[in-house]
Amino acid sequence: MTKTDDLGAWWRTSIIDMEPGRIAIRGTPIEELIGTVSFPQMIWLMTRGDLPESAQAQLLEAALVAGVDHGPQAPSIAAARMAATCGLGLNNVMATGVNMLGDVHGGAGEQCAELLFDISARVDCGADPEKAVADVLSAWRDTHGKIIPGFGHRFHKPVDPRAPRLMALVRDAAQAGTVSGRFAEIGEAVQTRIGADRGAPIAMNIDGATAVIFCELGFPPPLARGLFCLSRSVGILSHGWEQMQQGGRNKGPMPPGYLPHYDAPDEDA
Amino acid sequence: MTKTDDLGAWWRTSIIDMEPGRIAIRGTPIEELIGTVSFPQMIWLMTRGDLPESAQAQLLEAALVAGVDHGPQAPSIAAARMAATCGLGLNNVMATGVNMLGDVHGGAGEQCAELLFDISARVDCGADPEKAVADVLSAWRDTHGKIIPGFGHRFHKPVDPRAPRLMALVRDAAQAGTVSGRFAEIGEAVQTRIGADRGAPIAMNIDGATAVIFCELGFPPPLARGLFCLSRSVGILSHGWEQMQQGGRNKGPMPPGYLPHYDAPDEDA
Amino acid sequence: MTKTDDLGAWWRTSIIDMEPGRIAIRGTPIEELIGTVSFPQMIWLMTRGDLPESAQAQLLEAALVAGVDHGPQAPSIAAARMAATCGLGLNNVMATGVNMLGDVHGGAGEQCAELLFDISARVDCGADPEKAVADVLSAWRDTHGKIIPGFGHRFHKPVDPRAPRLMALVRDAAQAGTVSGRFAEIGEAVQTRIGADRGAPIAMNIDGATAVIFCELGFPPPLARGLFCLSRSVGILSHGWEQMQQGGRNKGPMPPGYLPHYDAPDEDA
Amino acid sequence: MTKTDDLGAWWRTSIIDMEPGRIAIRGTPIEELIGTVSFPQMIWLMTRGDLPESAQAQLLEAALVAGVDHGPQAPSIAAARMAATCGLGLNNVMATGVNMLGDVHGGAGEQCAELLFDISARVDCGADPEKAVADVLSAWRDTHGKIIPGFGHRFHKPVDPRAPRLMALVRDAAQAGTVSGRFAEIGEAVQTRIGADRGAPIAMNIDGATAVIFCELGFPPPLARGLFCLSRSVGILSHGWEQMQQGGRNKGPMPPGYLPHYDAPDEDA
């Protein structure tokens, strides 16, 4: 291998193949995909390498539609709106918002998918389903504390309205044979178990319901976060753009009259 | 207005209305949208406030599908792949890539849409169409130089394969009455004129063709950039994720054996 | 030139020269700089190519110290604090804050430096100083509106306390022969003129005073923004880190009980 | 507590206290700091709450000077240069580069500081120093693999020239009583132990040497990353600015003639 060959292999991809006048995505010329596949199908093709059936793509589409927005109280949306008042282009506004979707703000779907896959794998290895659920929850709590990603909502009490609708779509898809329904069952078993553990019912939230969908469709957990980022990008763009039209310069979190509280060091004494 | 009222109005939106257990997007409860509208319809609803007809959404969808990827030679894709080797989460990887879509890398669609609207407005005010095209091109060149956004491609010679396919879809949509076809005509007139000016034919590229679509559908120019960012986010996510699976640590642009050229100051002497 | 040579020249720099075991910055081995030059001297060396005199570096240092923080009401600081509650690493927290320093939030120093250099250049070409000031202000207002970057402050009335201190240091430096004092004079002439134009005195703010310093020291205007970003990075880091220690999860701009105002579409009717 | 009080406490800080015309940093009016404290002293004051002695600040300054740049092969620098060719402002260019300094690219100093503090704490609790070193290294390898952060360098063989210079400054500072020298000793014990374990000497790198300095000065480990981000921001700014002056549009990692390798799916068959 010459040095130049070495160079050619420095960046390698199985996603796209290009030469002048030709772009092939996963082996298919782009012009055969444009106007033919849906945007969710394209997202699936790009991230996974094959085209989904139409029913699979519709379930993915429901998850993508569900997560677009949670209003200016969400840090991702607020940061994008602030960015819009600082003179940034829409691309920078969007990047600012998406950058915020870290483990705490954007990671619950990924973490929940990991829990669901973990339970599923234990059952495949012969574990009793109820015990698998209890063990996985217990291991999570030991490491991360009592909040189980995908269940409960600090704002939407008693129920996050997105979750039951998404779960109904999963059950329909299971009945139609599009998905197995296995992860919906596991998700519900987790919900039951958390409720029993805390002595009060708890509801699955959007992160739990989308995690069920992504697991049913075979997406690996990190893509649960990635797909949520795509979905939320729509809200980030929309709010950034709305803020640009409203105007405002250097908008901080509160009106100028509200000063942050100063914790003088001697207050601790 | 009390101080607290003043506060409530500090962040205001017509996109989303929430209370515990309720999320309404542009006035419609989210659970009525999930599984009912397509992802492109949701993007339209979020950014514009109303739901498009199905045929309009399909034209938008074609534009979203077309722009997802241009391979690791594109700075947005390369930066995302590098970021993935630096230990970042997928949200940060995506933000890094999207941040790159500035005026030069992600702004051509927006700039082209501005040109097309400008020509259209002049014609509406009674200008001769050919003269409007010539005047707008001339004004652009005076300020920005000879590269007209949306036309020609440094890599895809003679033709960017995405553009003719998109333009065929626009013509179909015009024939079906979904759009007027007016901006397709203007785009073609611009293409003809640039070709005449330089004495050699030039082809519309993806930025030109998507600008035509966004103009036909009534999106304001800044959203041409925003929608491209959404589209390209799919490629950024896919390449970031592929790179994570390939591994690699701190990958620079070239293999470690290739050092950048050092321009010693006395070389200028 | 072989293809591989072409490659070697793809990235070229006069800042750094490296080979295994050797790092030279602007021609000087790094180990000769560490412990020998101050951090501001290093910033000057990196951005400009030569080492400043100690007195020059001290004036730069004063400007770097002055801009570090403006509290959680500043969008850059607020976004960093929010990011810290979303589970991001400190690098991503800092990037989120720095990204916000666009034309409106971080560009005033650069814009003011451009005005000062423009006035200076006109005087060099023989213009009457007072007329040069008036013409440059008038041209700015025609394009950008009435706010002149570097003068006035929406919060610090009547005076931003950083500006008079910085200007006193400039005057001292001019008296000592470290700088010419020319841009301090121009800045004061601009201040006088704006006051006359609006019929009420106006004070130079930190962006004006640092712009004067950067012009006196010979930094091109875009570096005025870059140096401010370096300075403000200190505050962004400090607030992000303080927020991490305070804890909090997904902190939006206001407490959860405060909902953004929903502008229903029919409110416009 | 009224709702508005609750609001005032939503953002709280002990860093800065402001009212119109007054800015106090950690209790000191900003105008008393400008021109009086050095930039490294200000960095210390902002991040920690008190002002360091001059000798302490000089040791911090050496660490800040050492890390500014590692050339365009570093992903942080390369991404910034690419960003500069995409039409971004310098603030966005800088954010793009700093965002890259994740666990792999920017986290080694923080991780090394954690190891050093861990060894120190074990010795404080009565452990044998050699055993503490061996146990901490062994625990790290079990979780993270064989690369110990802060030691060895893939490019600078045999020695990263920044580390011995920094360590000499630490030894001088220990002799002068500025620092205890304890973490320098621990760092050297770690270096010896790794060398013995692998049967070949290994050298401390810049991350190890700066971790020693930050530990000696009492900075908590996350600030090791934060301070490195501040330092590297200087290089990111300088290279971004140099690239802006060189020009170039949409520069990918390699010249346009070098295409990434396409891994066709059937190559795996």
| Lateral arrangement of strands in the main beta sheet of chain A | 2-3-4
- N- to C-terminal separation of chain A? 69 Å
Shape of chain A: globular
Identify the CATH architecture of the largest domain in chain A: Orthogonal Bundle
Mean pLDDT across all amino acids of chain A: 94
Main sheet of chain A, how many strands, which sense, barrel?
A: 3 strands, antiparallel
Tell me the count of domains of chain A. 2
Q: Return the CATH topology of the largest domain in chain A.
A: Cytochrome p450-Terp, domain 2
Strand content of chain A: 5-15%
Secondary-structure class of chain A: mainly alpha
Query: How many DSSP helices of chain A?
Result: 12
Elements of chain A, N to C (H/E): HEEEEHHHHHHHHHHHE
Specify the CATH homologous superfamily of the largest domain in chain A.
Cytochrome P450-Terp, domain 2
Number of strands of chain A: 5
CATH class of the largest domain in chain A: Mainly Alpha
Oligomeric grouping of the chains: homotetramer
* Most extensive protein-chain contact, per-chain counts: A-B, 94 and 94 residues
Poorly predicted segments of chain A: none
Structure description:
- 4 copies of one chain form a homotetramer.
- The first copy, chain A, has 269 residues and is mainly alpha-helical.
- Chain A is 57% helix and 5% strand.
- Chain A contains 12 helices and 5 strands.
- Chain A has a 3-stranded antiparallel sheet.
- In chain A, a hairpin with a 2-residue loop joins strand 3 and strand 4.
- In chain A, helix 4 packs antiparallel against helix 11, helix 7 runs antiparallel to helix 12 and helix 9 packs parallel to helix 11.
- The mean pLDDT of chain A is 94.
- The interface between A and B is large, with 94 and 94 residues.
